[in-house]
């Protein structure tokens, strides 16, 4: 792919992505073509001393790809774009001007680790960021996932829920919603163990549902029985396993052990 064609496709991608209503299908098609062009130009995984301006363009394309992945809810694609960006964020960080998208993308990666319950990887990644510990509070893109992790460890799920509206970028809400899905299932398991039934209103409050239709859909997935007339739901109880204790064998073993002790004495 010629350099001129690569530049034209890059301009089309910027227009499609930055428009008020991003054309995600068009962005996806352009990104596929541009990645081929970056491979041919040796810029997808650059080595040596490539042109500085070319590196900036390549980094920008991959960053748009990372945001596009979240907007299309394609987490594996986000992982690939993030991995490809590491070369630009680390090996060429001193050569390239700072990117305004770097910390938003790094923050998204931190929340992604939380959604997968990879707490050790979360802390390792946090420690490797090009930011001092005393600067985290002033960086909303990093402080947001840091706060989420602390609230999760505390069990302050209401704070996690409220954090959705405080997200520093729209893309963050996708991962917060994913976190809430995990939290709801944990709360639901506790409810099933602690209660036989609950009023619908109380269940909605505990599970952070604002719409009854969402609660009913969740209840159906968990196979709960819903009584709309009584305004309650009953939890499906798992059959308790019956464990038979071999009494005769235990008695015989105890007597044999006692006889052996008498012989020793």
From TrEMBL:
Name by which UniProt lists this protein = Uncharacterized protein
Organism whose genome encodes this protein: Pluteus cervinus
Lineage here is: Eukaryota, Fungi, Dikarya, Basidiomycota, Agaricomycotina
> Which domain of life does the UniProt lineage start with?
Eukaryota
